[in-house]
Amino acid sequence: MKSQTALLYFCSAMNIILIEKDERFFPRYDERCVHIRKILKKKAGDLFSAGEVNGPEGRALIERLDETGLSFSFTAERPSAPLHPLVLLVGFPRPIQLKRLLRDVSSLGVSSVLLSGTDLGEKSYRESNLVDRGSASASLREGAVQAASTAIPSFSLCDSIDDALRTLPDAAQRVVLDVEGAVCPLAEMSGDRPTAERPLVLAVGSERGWSARERDLFRLSGFTVCSLGSRILRTETACTAAVSVALAKFRLW
Amino acid sequence: MKSQTALLYFCSAMNIILIEKDERFFPRYDERCVHIRKILKKKAGDLFSAGEVNGPEGRALIERLDETGLSFSFTAERPSAPLHPLVLLVGFPRPIQLKRLLRDVSSLGVSSVLLSGTDLGEKSYRESNLVDRGSASASLREGAVQAASTAIPSFSLCDSIDDALRTLPDAAQRVVLDVEGAVCPLAEMSGDRPTAERPLVLAVGSERGWSARERDLFRLSGFTVCSLGSRILRTETACTAAVSVALAKFRLW
Question: What's the ipTM?
Answer without folding.
Answer: 0.93
